[in-house]
Amino acid sequence: MFTGxxxxxxxxxxxxxxxxxxxxxIDSKITSELKIDQSVAHNGICLTxxxxxxxxxxxxxxxxxxxxxxxxxxxxxxxxxxERAMLMGARxxxxxxxxxxxxxxxxxxxxxxxxxxxxxxxxxxSKNNITIEKGSITIDGTSLTVVNSGKNTFSxxxxxxxxxxxxFKTYEMGTEVNLEFDVVGKYVSKLLSLKQ
Length: 196
Prior knowledge:
13% of the residues lie in helices and 43% in strands. It has three helices and twelve strands. Strand 4 and strand 5 (56-61) form a beta hairpin.
C-alpha cells in the first residue's frame, strides 16, 4: 500500500531481458534503506526488491506488468519516481494507492496558469475506468486531484514543488504515463457494470 507521495528519484542503470520478464537495476539514494522482498512503487508500479548491491537494487517485471504499464519503454538512464510502502501509524498525505497500474494515458495538453501548470491526459475509456471532479488519480505514482473530468480525458493542476520533485518536470506533449484510478471509483464502476 502506498500514498502517492513521491520520496525520491531512481535512475535505471541496466535492463536485462529474460524470456518474457524484464530485470531492472535501479540506482537510488534510498537503496541503503531497502531490503530484499520489500515493495517499492516505480512510477506507480509496485515491484519487489530481489537483490541489492551498493547503491543499486534489482526488481523484476513480468509480462502482465509490461503489457499494462510504460515499463517496457524505459531505457538505461530513465528517471523513475520512487515511493516505499506506507508505514502503519504514519500520516496518509496522498490517498490509498495500491501500486497496481490500471492502464496508460498520453499527455495531450500542458498549460501554464501563473503559479501552477495544468496537465491534461487522454486514456482508453473502453477499459471502464473513470475520473470525477475533485477525485483522486495516481499518475506515474504521484497522488493528484482531478480538476477537469471528461469521458476519456482529465486534467490535474501541478504546484511548483510537485513539478520539481516528480517526473512531471520531464513531461511533454505525447508523454505516456501510468494511471491508477481511485480504488473506490473502481468498485463503483464494477458494480454499475454488473447491473447492466
